[in-house]
Amino acid sequence: MTVDLSQIVKAYDIRGVVPDQWDETLAELFGAAFVRVTDADAIVIGYDMRPSSPGLANAFARGAARLGADVTLIGLCSTDQLYFASGSLGLPGAMFTASHNPAQYNGIKMCRAGAAPVGQDTGLADIRALAEQWTVTGAPEAAATPGTITERETLDDYAAHLKGLVDLTAIRPLKVVVDAGNGMGGHTVPTVFAGLPLETVPMYFELDGTFPNHEANPLDPKNIVDLQARVVAEGADIGLAFDGDADRCFVVDERGEPVSPSAITALVAARELAKHPGGTIIHNLITSWSVPEVVRENGGEPVRTRVGHSFIKEEMAKSGAIFGGEHSAHYYFKDFWNADTGMLAALHVLAALGGQQGALSDLVSAYDRYASSGEINSTVVDQAASTAKVKAAYADADGVTFDELDGLTVTAGDWWFNLRASNTEPLLRLNVEARDEPTMAKLRDEVLTLVRS
């Protein structure tokens, strides 16, 4: 019989329900396949706070060691801490996490040495094929000399590396509310923030992979309600929310208002360009118009890409970009092996805020110039037909241009919108931006009516 792992091997990672869709037996085969495909003689492995994570990580380690690779286990860590270990140790890595998915899920994010991503076209399809084969034929023959499995602590080195990239020595004291969502931010924030002039108000720092307080996905507005209220109640300068594996960071200003990831992208881009004049900045096609504007104003070169971290990382490597940002609060740094780290973006925001006397809302207003809808999902039966209907509706409008780099982007003088199909669900995702709120709202409602009728 053949085994089909297509339900759990996604475009960028492995993800599924444990133990229904995958378990430690399969994790061991994935570990062996990872070593075979990367041709690694040593790897590094980390895991998040989910109940199933330690067992899966240890099984993967056994599979890797069986094929002769020496394994370094770094234990509980954030995804960007695993990227740090891969980058600083020069080893391929595997991170056990399902990010913001519910507790019954788990997954593996894999990278080659130097945190280079392993995706569908860069090894993941081959790993799947081997694992499928071995579920039928049995595990591969063990190496003559099995690898060793040792443990190593990397949290202090990770924190020191990040603080070496941002100068926080001269900032004014700040009161910071941090919502870790019972995820890995509760593990990393205390060490990274130690010694800085910050009064940290912790929320949900207890590591708990059942997520008892709210889903660890700060992009969903309902999951930052507690943080918004606490920032106002504490009279804090800023609020930070991390997702489950703490590779994404979302920012709330002193009024409890969310700061758009596009504004954060523009702010960090300006800071990185001050360090690296004339550098290239990557942004995906649904970040705000303000991002390329700010990049050009600061002497940089903006490059627009498709949505998704594999496209961003690929473009960063190709163009030598110094920084990249996405609407989903993923931030990528050349100084961090082109990998994404929400923690480094947070330190940049704290440095910018603490380096002047104004409030965060005033600081980010220079980077938040337009009215935007945020991402709105619609369930549709036929994504292509709905998209074609929208395109036809705007085909004869004056001064309108179309672009199909990723879904359909329609642009006019005062507005643009993008309509993209989800790869995994029967959804169309709409993002709208305009020079003012009434124009944005009118356009948003027009397009949604077309999509949903």
TrEMBL record:
It comes from the Bacteria. GO terms for biological process: carbohydrate metabolic process. The keyword Isomerase applies. Pfam families: PGM_PMM_I, PGM_PMM_II, PGM_PMM_III, PGM_PMM_IV. Its cofactor is Mg(2+). One of its GO terms (molecular function) is metal ion binding. Gene3D superfamilies: Alpha-D-Glucose-1,6-Bisphosphate, subunit A, domain 3, Alpha-D-phosphohexomutase, C-terminal domain. InterPro entries: A-D-PHexomutase_a/b/a-I, A-D-PHexomutase_a/b/a-I/II/III, A-D-PHexomutase_a/b/a-II, A-D-PHexomutase_a/b/a-III, A-D-PHexomutase_C, A-D-PHexomutase_C_sf, Alpha-D-phosphohexomutase_SF. Residues 375-448 form the Alpha-D-phosphohexomutase C-terminal domain. Residues 7-132, 156-256, 264-370 form the Alpha-D-phosphohexomutase alpha/beta/alpha domain. Keywords: Isomerase, Magnesium, Metal-binding, Phosphoprotein. PANTHER family: PHOSPHOMANNOMUTASE. Belongs to the phosphohexose mutase family. NCBIfam families: PRK09542.1. This is Phosphomannomutase. It comes from Streptomyces viridochromogenes.
